Task: structure prediction
Amino acid sequence: MKILLTVHHNLTPDSGAPGITFRLSRYFKMAGHDVTIFSFSDLPSCFPEVLKKILFPFFVAVRIFKSGRKKGFDVVDSSTGDNWIWASVVKRFREFKPLLVTRSHGFELLADKRLKKEAKRGNLKLSWRYPLFHGGLMLWYVALSVRKSDVVLFLNSTERDYAVQRLRLDPRRTIIVQHDISDLFANLPFYSIKKNTTPAIAVTGSFITKKGISYSMPALRKLLTLHSHLRVKFLGTGPCVRSIVNLFSSCEKERIEIYPSYRNKDLPDLLRDCQIALLPSISEGFGIALIESMACGLAPVASAIDGPLDYIKNGENGLLISPGSVEEIVTGINSLLRDKRYLENLRMRAWITAQHYCSRKNSNHQLAVYEEFMKKAKANI
Result:
C-alpha cells in the first residue's frame, strides 16, 4: 500500500501525536508499505502556528491532488480535522479516490464538552480566544472530517460512542485502535525501591488545561508541604518553565525539576529516580505518556476517564481518581508514599501491564483495517 499520514503538528518524533505518527510510519515501512508523512514541518516556516492550523487542511488537499497525477495514495490517514477540504469538495470531482481515514489522538468534541463543563462549574477559566478556534473553527473541521471519511479510528469506546451519537456516524465505519509504545520501553529492568530513597513524582505531558493543571498544581504544592523530602519532575511541558516555577514558593522551587522537552529514548533515565506518575487529565484519548511511565516502573495515579480506564484497574496496577479532585490526588499519593510495600506492588503490576503495548499489535490491527475497508470500497465500485 501507498500510505499518506498527516498530523497537524510539527513532526517531532519525541512528542505526542507527532511521535505516534512517526512510529506508525516506521512500523508500516517495516511491514513493506510505502509511507509518507505530511505535517506542519512541510508548511512555510514563516507562517505563525495559528495560521498553520487554519490552512493545513487546504495544504493536505493539494498534497493528495498532486499525488493523483502519478500513482496516487491508496490510503490517506489523517489526524482529526486534516482532510475535510479533500473529503468535502475535491473528492467529488476526482476519479482518484484513496481510502480516507480519520485518526483520533483524543476526540476534540468530547474534550470540548468536558472543558466547558469544568469551566461552568468554576473549576477552570477558558481563554476568551478558546470559542473562536479550539472551541469553534477546529471543532467544525473535526466534525466534517469525521463525517466525510470512509473510516474513523478512535482510541476508546467512549470516544466512538460519543461520535456516533453526536455526529450520527454509521457504527460500521468506526473502529477502536489503540497506540503502541516504542520498542525502547519493552522489557526495561524493574528497579525495586531502596531504603532511604527520596520519593519523587513525575508529571509527563504538555502544561495545558486539558491535562488537569488546575488540579495537579495545588495538589502538588500541598504534597510538597506534607512531605519535606518529596520531589516533583515535570517532563515535556513545552516552553512555559517560568509559568510553572512561579506557582511554587521559594523553598518548593528547590525540589522541582522542569524539562520543557526530552528525547523519547532518554525517558527511562529521566524517570529512574521517580516512583509515581501523575496524570489528572480532564480528557485523555489514551495517555501514551502514562503507559511509557508505567513501562519505566512508575505507579500511575490518573483520572478515572476513558483512556486510563482501559488499562488501569484501581488498587491493582495504579490509582484512579475523580477528574478535577485535588483532595483525591493528595489522598491517593499520600497512601502510596506512606506504604512502600503497596507502592512497590502497584509499580510492578503497572510495569507488567505496559509490556502488552510494546508488541506492535495495534499497528498491525490498523493495517488490517485499511485492507478491510479497501476491499469493501472495491466491492462497491
